[in-house]
Design a protein that fits this description.
There is one protein chain. The protein has helices at 43-50, 72-78, 94-104, 109-123, 138-150, 168-183, 195-198, 218-225, 238-246, 270-278, 294-310, and strands at 5-14, 17-27, 32-36, 58-63, 66-67, 79-82, 156-160, 187-192, 203-208, 211-216, 229-235, 251-257, 260-265, 285-289. It is of the alpha/beta class. It folds into two domains: 5-217, P-loop containing nucleotide triphosphate hydrolases (Rossmann fold), CATH 3.40.50.300; 227-291, 2-Layer Sandwich (Alpha-Beta Plaits), CATH 3.30.70. The strands form three sheets. A six-stranded mixed beta sheet has the order 6-7-8-3-9-10, with helices on both faces. Strands 2-1-4-5 form a four-stranded antiparallel beta sheet, with helices on one face. It has a four-stranded antiparallel beta sheet with strand order 12-13-11-14, sandwiched between helices. β9 (203-208) and β10 (211-216) form a beta hairpin. α3 (94-104) runs parallel beside α5 (138-150) and α8 (218-225) packs across α11. The two termini are 42 Å apart.
Amino acid sequence: MRAVVEVDRLTKKFGSFTAVDSISFSIEPGTIFGFLGANGAGKSTTIRMLCGLLRPSSGRARVAGFDVYKEAFRIKQVIGYMSQKFSLYLDLTVAENLEFFGRVYGLNDLRLQTSLARLKKITGLEGREGLLTSELPVGWRQRLALSCALLHDPEIIFLDEPTGGVDPLARRQFWDLIYEQAERGKTIFVTTHYLDEAEYCHQLRIIHAGRIIAAGSPREIKQKYFPENLLELACAQPLEAYEWLQRQPEIKQVSLFGLKLHLLVEPEAVSGLRRKLSQSGLGHFDLRPIVPSIEDVFIRRLEEEAGERGK
């Protein structure tokens, strides 16, 4: 099966600043492909290059078989794009926004009405057509923006931080809509800085300072970057425990997670660590193995990157 998005050493520079630094990946049809990273990591710049809105500095990329350098107009005809910044018209009603974008996509009356009926049912916008967009809660505005991006039934859908500023329930509902599109065979490229959302993706790339620092499915990424035992330590003095653990030779890495600590140790060192903790003077503690999360991977990779840059 041929990839619908192919990226090879794609780079974007703004003067002396490198926003996207020689990234490569491919996306198979029907995949929910996630880009996880903090603000400024290069997520939006990547999407804008792939949508034909920003010319790369170097590298190669094809979207639906079209070259991003030479065929940007054709790319725009087969993709749906929901930008990070809310881009609909607040002084228009829900129905007026939908019709306006349908006309922009060149839909005739029959196709527009068919598409509107389907999308309003899917996104729950039925009965809200007469409301001004400015009156909608943020979560409903995002549903409207997604509907506008889907009107022309695009092959590939680019969603740039689609749930930013949305409450947790609305975020979950929005992801239900994303899954519905993937089940229809659509390819979804979604960027996020929410660590829990990364778990929903079929394929994931963690991007930092314009570079991809982890790649694979969420499960593959966790297995790759956590071959050791991951333990969680709960105690009454987490800061003191953090400093103590950093001095222990069997501890490969320790990170604070709220009032608890996550630590990496080799399997054979766990029983010895329990004995040392009992004699450390830190008081009562609970040490147990846990399954790593994407947050664990994210923090570990950032700490490793910082260590490499500090050498």
